[in-house]
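Re: the 300-residue chain
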Amino acid sequence: MKNILNTVNSFLSTSIAVGICSLALSCDANAGIRQYRADLENSQWQLANNSRLQCTLAHQIPNYGEAKFSAKASRKLNMEFELDMMLLPDNYSLAEVRSVAPKWQPGKGGRSLTNMQLHKHFNPSLPKKVAWTMLSELDQGMSPTFYYNDWYSDQDKISVGLSTARFKKAYQQFVGCVGNLLNYSFDDISYTVLNYQSSSDKFTKASQRRIDMIREYLSLDPELELVLIDAYSDSYGGRWSNLKLSERRAAKIRDYFVKNGIDASRIEAKGYGEKRHISSNSTTLGRGKNRRVVIQMQKP
């Protein structure tokens, strides 16, 4: 009888261990699981970046690194999740991402969300759809958790969990930040051609809207290193007057940026008159294309 009971107990213990592993990762029942997660007392979520250019919701994972959800100014709503690891893996592997119920809700089932690639030379990340799903799971009290094999020990498994403690307030701030992002990015305006009305230093309506976008972006991004303003004219009129007209156009844009708080040392403005035509001056349409200013912005 004693032997039968021992056999049953052994079978149950093994089954439970295997069951736990199968919920989290494919693993040996005898393998150890090394867990990384902020406890209730130390869990912190914060809005690390809060501007119209970028929003970042960050969460510290003690002794492991930082989890970051980020969105940037763009024509389309974007999102990315990054796991900033203190120690990158020695080789390529996969981590399973699961939504796990908290300990105080043992009857609530979890689910697998995706697999995340782990690389040797840069932090792993996940795209927009999965990132938003993870945020939704956190908002519902679930804990997105990453499971993978330890690359230093075949017998050990790693579990990295995101805590739900103190999440909701920071998440609300993050959503508000994302809703206030610019609907265009640096790449959308880094090279811009503006056009003028005939014999004037006044922009067309479309170009006026464009320069307002550039001015707003410049006021928000201190990392921009240089703004180049090159102004040109058509060949209607004398060369000297056209040169001076293009110089006035370039200077007016420069002054417009400076008056709106842009450091003058970051701006170079030049007028080239009739040089470098891009279209024929024999037609109204062609002359309109030649009456232009090219604005180029550079980052370090």
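The longest strand covers residues 54-61.
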